[in-house]
């Protein structure tokens, strides 16, 4: 991988169609701007129509003449996921080059999705897994479809509680729930790659993480704690860490942009900053728990059971 890889090295994306979840802000918005500027047709998956329209204006300003579509998508509502998948298949004629599973919520106060799942596991993992499976026909319809799933350094040290994924029988901890969701993302991406390879599919499953990027999610994590002293302390620590370590969004988005566009990317690759929390994009090692085939199979089967979506990774 070229050590000086930047956005300028992204190949021409003309003729390619990309769906980005959570494209209204942060890493998703930046990815939409860059890919549109390189000629891609970009579908912006956004929960809020108002914020989605604002994002469209931002991308148009960054990429004159961009070919854009807004897709209403609430990953915390499986009915919305199904509707969005159907819309994308209609818009693309079943030819989607890249699905970038970027959206997410971080360390929220305990909450539930529309279907009753723990909010972070339900949004970050279940919603994206269902969307991926529902869009597999469109990904297979492209010459070389790619699924880019975002994990996080927060997955390090996390655990999959597959017997209690919604924290119904244990104490809820916002940061631990976020770690489980991001470990689930990584485990799912690896299992998807395993199954795509077994089926001799041309679709690639690739993983990425942004390191520590200034997206505002740290503040959200601090706000999730009820204790006002702890909440204030964490917010101040987050702000100090942001000043010292956090990459700008422009740099944080590079790993997922590389994963989506670089010719040398292979199925199962994990792209992140070379120094874990910051630095140029590089191929990094996935976590051992995420590579466990038994965990991958168990998560796959549980996800199908909970979402009611039939997996189709051919």
Automatic annotation (TrEMBL):
Domain of life: Bacteria
Any matching Pfam family: adh_short
Leader peptide range in chain numbering: none
Organism (species): Amycolatopsis rubida
Protein name: SDR family NAD(P)-dependent oxidoreductase
Alphabetized UniProt keyword annotations: Oxidoreductase
SUPFAM superfamilies the UniProt entry points to: NAD(P)-binding Rossmann-fold domains
NCBIfam families in the record: PRK06197.1
